[in-house]
Amino acid sequence: RKDGSLIDVEISSTLIRYSDSKVIMVNVRDITEHIKASMELKKQSDIMRDQMELIDIAEDAIIVSSVDGRITFWNHGAVKKYGWTKEDALGKDIHELLQTKFPEPLKTINDKLFKDERWEGELIHTRSDGTSIIVESKWALRKDTNNNPVAVMEINNDITTRKHAEEALQKAKDELERRVEERTKEIKE
After folding, report:
1. CB 53 within 8 A of CB 98
2. β strands within 19-128, DSSP E
3. pTM, full prediction
4. What are the backbone dihedrals phi and psi of residue 116, each rounded to the nearest 5 degrees, phi first?
5. What digits encode the pLDDT tens for the residues 85-111?
6. Degrees (nearest 5) of the Cα angle 87, 90, 92?
7. Which of 23, 26, 78, 117 is positioned for an S-S bond with 141, CB 3.0–4.6 A?
């Protein structure tokens, strides 16, 4: 530039014949902003790719499905937790695949999800080998720029061991209370 600053340019030339003369027309176009925009898009794309890789390696099962329940994303945590590969899961109905047992009707859950854009609770899922697991499930509704629901992200954490321990502890507590009650009766008699 006139001020000495450098810019990125694109140069094209054309040979023009006019009567007996030949002239070369050179067109120089400033593409500095175009290159900056392209570099910013690449940077954002790299960041998004890195974030997707992090989501993919998470231990929790992270599943994205369309509003009608068709699986569109199935991370490595879901593969490990449920036993189905990404290829097995993608496009399937999430609740049919996992044979989901809900704590309340699915319609009630969906009503809350669409109203609050969030839902969480415990579900029972069936793994590919037929075993059941209890999961703490958190759902988030994603909307498009027109505020229309487009996807549901579900994060599931296996709490089967914890729930079985809680049940065993409750049974032991109930048994202890029963024995104390019986012993108290014996002492009073």
Report:
1. no
2. 21-30, 61-66, 71-74, 118-126
3. 0.67
4. -95, -10
5. 999 999 999 999 999 999 999 999 999
6. 120
7. 117
Contact 62, 153 (CB under 8 A): yes
| Residue bearing tokens 């690449």 | 42
Residue keyed to tokens 């960041």: 47
Query: What are residue 153's phi and psi, to 5 degrees?
Result: -100, 130
Q: Say if residues 15 and 24 touch (Cβ distance below 8 Å).
A: yes
Instruction: Work out the number of other CB atoms within 10 angstroms of the CB of residue 31.
Output: 14
3-state secondary structure of 70: strand
* pLDDT digit string, tens, across residues 34-92: 888 888 888 887 777 777 776 777 789 999 999 999 999 999 999 999 999 999 999 99
Three-state DSSP state, 91: coil
Contact in structure between 49 and 80 (CB atoms under 8 Å)? no
